[in-house]
Design brief:
The protein is an alpha/beta fold. It has six helices and four strands; from the N terminus they run βαβααβαβαα. Helix 1 links the parallel strand 1 and strand 2.
């Protein structure tokens, strides 16, 4: 029997601006890492959202293509905006940029202790810049940058998401 979201042992929400590029890429890359690890995927709630996202927009074509080139799939992704109830459902909220983290902390103070930037998982303080509007190669670089932070911070994400 599958647990419902409130019974998940681990939960992480990836956040960017529009929830069409960086946070969906981080979400599918991290889900893949969990599936290939000793972790039990059924124990995890892994989603993404955007500070300025509308409901139901697909991932950008370049983001979907880059993820496809990495052997994963973003075709079914649909954007969602952050809300207080959404944020309340996660033990760890990882933003792509400091300004996004600061915005959530200001606007949703009840979750401020759970909000960090993704690079902090690898003991760095580096924004992951939005590749929207740049050539395809920028999306590849962004996906690889996200993947490196996820790899370096994997054990910290597991620890903080429980």
């Amino acid at each position: 029997m599958t647990k419902n979201n409130s019974e998940k042992n681990h939960s992480v929400l990836f956040v960017c601006a529009a929830n069409q590029c960086r946070s969906p890429m981080a979400m599918v890359l991290f889900k893949d890492m969990i599936a290939k690890s000793k972790e039990k995927p059924d124990d995890w709630r892994i989603e993404s959202a955007g500070i300025y996202a509308s409901n139901g927009s697909p991932a950008t074509k370049d983001a979907a293509l880059v993820i496809s080139e990495m052997g994963l799939d973003l075709r079914d992704h649909r954007s969602q905006p952050i809300t207080e109830s959404l944020l309340d459902g996660f033990n760890l909220i990882l933003c792509m940029e400091n300004e996004q983290a600061n915005s959530i902390k200001r606007n949703f103070p009840t979750v401020k202790d759970r909000v960090l930037i993704l690079s902090a998982m690898a003991d760095q303080d580096q924004d992951i810049l939005d590749p929207v509007g740049y050539p395809h190669n920028a999306y590849k670089n962004t996906a690889n940058e996200i993947l490196e932070f996820l790899k370096k911070g994997f054990s910290k994400i597991i620890q903080l998401s429980s």
